[in-house]
Amino acid sequence: MTWLERIYPALKPWLFRLDAETAHSLTVKMMVISHKLGLLRPLGTGQPVQCMGLTFPNRLGLAAGMDKSASAADAWAALGLGHVEVGTLTPRPQPGNAKPRLFRLPEHNALINRMGFNNPGIISAVKRLEKRRSKAVVGVNIGKNFDTPNENAVNDYLYCLKAAYGTADYITVNISSPNTKGLRDLQAEDAVRHLLTTMKKEQAELKKEHGKMVPVLVKIAPDLNDLQIESLARVINEINLDGVIATNTTIAREAVAGHRLANETGGLSGAPVRERSTLVLQAFRMLLKPTIPLIGVGGIVEGSHAAEKIQHGAELVQIYSGLVFRGPALIRESLSALSTK
Ligand SMILES: Cc1cc2nc3c(=O)[nH]c(=O)nc-3n(C[C@H](O)[C@H](O)[C@H](O)COP(=O)(O)O)c2cc1C
Predict the structure, then answer these.
(1) Using an 8 Å Cβ cutoff, are 16 and 8 in contact?
(2) Is 215 helix (H, G, I), strand (E, B) or coil?
(3) How far is the CA of 206 from the centre of ligand 1 (A)?
(4) Which residues pair with 265 in a beta bridge?
């Protein structure tokens, strides 16, 4: 057991007394300092996996939103995560929604957030990533600025794709955050076809320019109905997209009904989204060509949940909310559960 695993259970009650966003910033700052002092140790290993033409040191990664500014990728990697997805990043920096905008529902191992893509802008994040040292795969998750109308959204995504291409190992087109007005409308068949076709065309140009192929993925919502899942899968197959991340947070609240925070606006994550996320993952696995890989995310709060995503068709998995409630133990458990997959 590492010192971090030893102190987390004692630290957690103190962190939980702070407002959730303050606790989050403090934790990440402590991690970065600990990493600079050489104090972080891997919480497990795992088998390398080939996926999308990249070598992932193992199947476990950090989901987008934990490191929005790309300032702690090396620290997360030092804990043994095989990939770190930074962002969401937008063309221009933006402050996000008013605080408070992140809430804990500990009774449900869940969070509700309406952060609204608070981020320092893609250029500043890319500069930071250029200095990274770890061998972990780094994904850059991109979005549109809150004040860019959907008709022009494609320009924001193109801008971010071009800015990140030289540095990122893969790029995720995020069209599934519930906290940017109208963003999820980009998942509709015609809109998504236009957006992703444009991304793939630009990727071909950038591949020639940079001499490397950077996979482009799309991240989807768990709240899609069957018809929406079918149309989205059809477009992804047609375009031959490089991968799909299932899923983002949910706007559904059935699982936490009656909780005093249940009616906070935003996306619900953690244990209550697990079942739905896995169903959506499974549906996409059935509908997508076998050559298009899936990354499973949503509700992993135990190692066995990480293994479950692989059983239902994911090549790789990501964690976020579970880390808040379980701390480093979740990384150790997940790596161990995945090592036999
Ligand atoms: C506070 C918070 C911020 C998030 N921000 C982003 C984001 O900027 N971009 C994104 O694609 N997903 C974001 N997510 C969604 C996560 O990446 C993940 O898809 C979702 O939380 C489900 O996984 P989980 O149940 O393990 O947390 C965020 C989640 C949380 C809790």
Answers:
(1) no
(2) coil
(3) 28
(4) none
CA angle 309, 46, 306 (to 5 degrees): 20
Which of 312-328 are b and which e, b meaning 16 or more Cβ less than 10 Å from the residue's Cβ? Answer: bbbbbbbbbbbbbbbbb
Beta-ladder partners of 105 = 110
Q: Largest Cα–Cα distance of the chain, in whole Å?
A: 54
Q: Which of 177, 249, 273 to mutate to test the pocket of ligand 1 (most atoms within 8 A of CB)?
A: 249
Tell me the two tokens of residue 169: 């190992």
Task: Note the pLDDT tens digit of each residue in 278-312.
Answer: 999 999 999 999 999 999 999 999 999 999 999 99
Beta bridge partners of 141: 172
Q: Are 156 and 180 in contact (CB under 8 A)?
A: no
Ligand 1 midpoint to CA 209 (Å)? 32
As given in the structure block, the two tokens for residue 147 are 């004040």
Catalytic residue of the set 177, 269, 277, 321: 177
Which of 157, 60, 164, 73 shows the shortest CA–CA distance to 117?
Answer: 157
Residue 207 belongs to what H/E stretch?
A: helix 189-210
Between helix 189-210 and helix 153-165 the angle, nearest 10°, is: 30
Pair of tokens at residue 250: 């949910």
Q: Which residues pair with 102 in a beta bridge?
A: 113
Strands 243-246 and 83-89, by their bridges, are unpaired
Task: Ligand 1, residue 277: give the atom nearest the CA.
Answer: 22
**147: Cα within 13 Å, side-chain hemisphere:** 6
Q: Could you tell me the CA-to-CA distances from 201 to 61, 195, 235, 310 in Å, in that order?
A: 28, 10, 15, 31
Find, among 42, 61, 57, the residue nearest to 4 by Cα: 42
Per-residue pLDDT of 114-165, as tens digits, reads: 999 999 999 999 999 999 999 899 999 999 999 999 899 999 999 999 999 9
Q: What is the pTM of this model?
A: 0.97
The full set of domain ranges for the chain reads 3-338
C-alpha to C-alpha distance for 170 and 84, rounded to whole angstroms:
10
Which CATH number does 3-338 carry? Answer: 3.20.20.70
